Amino acid sequence: MPPIINVIIPAFNEEDSIAHVIKEIPDIVSEIIVVNNNSTDQTENVAKKAGATVLREKQKGYGYACLKGMEYIASKDIKPDIIVFLDGDYSDYPAELTQIVAPIIEQNMDLVIGSRVKHLREAGSMTSPQIFGNWLATGLMKLFFGAKFTDLGPFRAIKYDKLLALGMIDKTYGWTVEMQLKVLKKRYNYTEVPVHYKKRIGVSKVSGTIKGAIFAGVKILSWIFKYSFA
Fold first, then answer.
1. pTM of the predicted model, to two decimals?
2. What DSSP designation does 186 have?
3. Rounded distance between C-alpha atoms, residue 142 and residue 138, angstroms
4. Residue pLDDT, tens place only, 80-139
5. How far is it, in rounded angstroms, from Cα 146 to Cα 33?
6. Cβ pair 10, 62 in contact under 8 A
7. Alpha carbons 149 and 176: distance in angstroms, whole number
8. Is the dihedral of CA 113, 117, 120, 122 positive or negative?
9. What does the alpha-carbon distance between residue 205 and residue 90 come to, in Å, rounded to a whole number?
10. Continuous H helices in 17-159
11. φ, ψ for residue 100 (rounded to 5)?
């Protein structure tokens, strides 16, 4: 039997992009879960019309939204085998989901990160703070843990049982790095898959503001140093 795959998409004011994202997700996905993270636009209605299950999480924060999606999945009778996390801004290519889950299905990997490699990135799709932050965070993980990560990319897939075992707790910008650090600590099998990346629709809530970029950087570094000396 093919694996059951669920997708969780945190979304805050993504009314112009969310339908495009949902439409391009491959049919191998059993359920698309959009978590409306206190949007002030029509994100929720657009996502419902596009065929997604829509949840509400009024507490703003990427991690809050992801945890809400996991809470919903835990309440279902039939649990998925694989969870895919994907942004709602249409910067990723949802059709590449099949490439993201392939190492889990074919090679028994536990975690797969979509790595936004330079030659597949549209010019200007990642800001300078994002590029530097990725370089610094993955460099520190390599230094402290011997990690082989090159990106903190949000487009990722993980076995559902392994995700639960991580005990994810970060509520905001540290969600991605927390997952990768805990995977390293538990010695899970992981790999990266090169993915295309384009300019997002709308303005980034993190890299699009100085405050967001600084807060995200501090949060990411705090997780790394916390685990380095734990």
1. 0.91
2. T
3. 6
4. 999 999 999 999 999 999 999 999 999 999 999 999 999 999 999 998 888 888 888 899
5. 34
6. yes
7. 12
8. positive
9. 14
10. 18-23, 43-49, 62-74, 97-107, 128-145
11. -70, -40
